[in-house]
Design goal:
By secondary structure, the protein is mainly alpha-helical. The protein is built from 22 helices and 2 strands. Strand 1 and strand 2 form a beta hairpin.
């Protein structure tokens, strides 16, 4: 038996690895619960601005009630698992655009005379910037990045890895003020008011440092991709027909592009008009009960938020259909209907992987082990006497480490902010700067934790484009992201320290210090 066959035998399939992690989580929760493991910290009352006691304790799944929970919640949890439903719906739209030939023509025109490194940079930059729409950016960009690289005669796996790195390493980096920023800002303001009841945080208080970090990070990820990752991924064989086939932009293709562009303009006009407040019959997609515009867009009750996946998918279907009718690649309604399922071919294994990942995320969240760890890390902050740069470094490390166990930004900040903000303010750091440190810390680590809901989409797409019999296991998927995580950690920590030393404004009217 040669080394490769032996390696394949001992390599765990992603599903088996997930099953083992589920089993380990169940047993460990039982042991920790039996030992009475818990952690106590402080939270802030929203009414009295006083500290309340918060107790995080492990809930056991290694019991009859725990096993009942797993069996009774698995189906409902899977049915409501956002990554799966969003992924399948978006793939329908991508399938129409791909099968009609629209994506091939557009991506060829965009990349034909462009340097590979420039294509990678633009993809990564878009991945970082698209964080404004939240987690849905993973659903949209990851499959499209694979097609972009495949059309450009490159390994689609590289596109998936680079895009996922941009999305995760840029997870807490936004030039625009996002809905997540708004939610975090509310918690930060609440914590800041413990020290200064009159303190008001600014929505523009992050823009300068975010602008610098966005382009610096895009450049860094591009360099790692082009100088390291492309040599580490398995080779991807492009078929001879794909190599020899050239995209011909004739009259039909031009007509298709013109019709697609017209459909896009009309659709975007209707869409944009309905998210602009204050015009006649406008603002129909907004939640008018909210204060900030970004919350009007992305609040739980807004039509825009609830229907965003379908809005995007319907736009893709329109563009692909109009191109196909103009270019002659879609001749009748039968062909159109058959094209709906094009991108869903071969995704059975993807759905199964997502199913088991949804169970892992559900059981880990139920055990509350992540919250216990984050609470203990919060106590580490509370018990320190660090100030200035040592405190900045500790805050960064705590945020990064906590992300591995509780990927939800809001859930982590609900625990951390009550301690992190007052301690930072007493040491002279501004609440805005403290929130930036928190977001930078999570950006470095969120791509390395398999309990992050969208990690499974990344893993599944790597497996989908895997031409070799050798399995793309979880550790291998993490290994691809590890260089990005380490480099991002070093870059962002360096930037916050230098920014603090120099004292540059981090946003409009805000500085690292009070």
């Amino acid at each position: 038996m040669n080394v490769n066959k032996l390696k394949e035998k001992i390599t765990l399939h992603p599903i088996m690895a997930i099953l083992i992690m589920i089993g380990f989580t169940i047993v460990l929760s039982g042991i920790l619960a039996a030992l009475g493991v818990q952690a106590t910290s402080k939270t802030i009352s929203t009414t009295s601005l006083e500290y309340n006691t918060y107790i995080a304790e492990v809930s056991s799944l290694f019991s009859l009630s725990g096993l009942k929970y797993i069996f009774t919640s698995t189906i409902s949890n899977f049915m409501s698992f956002a990554p799966l439903s969003s992924f399948i719906i978006v793939l329908i739209g991508i399938g129409i655009m791909q099968k009609s030939g629209f994506l091939k023509v557009v991506f060829t025109l965009l990349t034909k005379n462009a340097k590979k490194v420039n294509v990678t940079f633009v993809l990564v930059l878009i991945s970082i910037l698209l964080g404004i729409i939240g987690d849905l950016s993973f659903i949209i960009l990851l499959p499209i990045s694979a097609i972009l690289f495949e059309v450009g005669k490159r390994n689609p796996t590289i596109g998936i890895i680079a895009s996922f790195a941009g999305l995760t390493c840029g997870y807490g980096i936004n030039i625009m003020f996002t809905s997540m920023d708004s939610s975090l800002l509310s918690l930060s303001t609440l914590a800041a008011n413990i020290v200064d009841p009159n303190y008001v945080m600014k929505t523009t208080g992050f823009v300068f440092i975010m602008l610098v970090v966005t382009f610096a990070l895009a450049y860094l990820i591009t360099q790692i991709t082009e100088k390291y990752i492309i040599y580490k991924v398995d080779k991807y064989e492009i078929s001879t027909s794909e190599i020899e086939e050239e995209v011909f932009l004739g009259k039909k293709e031009k007509k298709g592009l013109a019709l697609a562009f017209l459909a896009f303009v009309v659709y975007m006009f209707i869409f944009i008009y309905n998210i602009i407040p204050g015009l006649p019959f406008s603002g129909n997609f907004l939640d008018q009960s909210q204060v900030f515009y970004i919350d009007k867009l992305f609040s739980y009750n807004s039509f825009f938020n609830k229907g965003f996946v379908f809005i995007i998918t319907f736009g893709m279907v329109l563009i692909g259909s109009f191109y196909g009718m103009g270019a002659g690649t879609i001749k009748n309604h039968r062909e159109l209907c058959e094209n709906f399922g094009h991108s869903l071919d071969g995704v059975g294994q993807v759905i199964v992987t997502i199913f088991f990942a949804s169970i892992l995320i559900n059981v880990f969240k139920y055990t509350n082990m992540g919250s216990v760890i984050v609470t203990e890390l919060t106590n580490l902050l509370n018990n320190t006497s660090f100030t200035a740069i040592p405190l900045i470094i500790l805050l960064f490390f705590v945020s990064a480490l906590a992300t591995l166990f509780v990927p939800s930004s809001l859930a982590r900040w609900q625990i951390l902010s009550a301690i992190a903000i007052p301690i930072s303010m007493e040491s002279g750091l501004s609440p805005e700067f403290t929130q930036i440190i928190f977001r930078f810390g999570e950006s470095a680590m969120i791509g390395l934790t398999p309990i992050f809901a969208y990690f499974v989409i990344y893993l599944a797409l790597l497996e989908k484009y895997n031409q070799k019999k050798e399995t793309i296991h979880i550790l291998k998927a993490i290994k691809y992201q590890l260089p990005f995580g380490i480099a991002t950690f070093a870059l962002l920590l360096t930037i916050v320290i230098v920014w603090y030393i120099v004292g540059l404004p981090i946003g409009v009217g805000t500085f690292p210090t009070l």
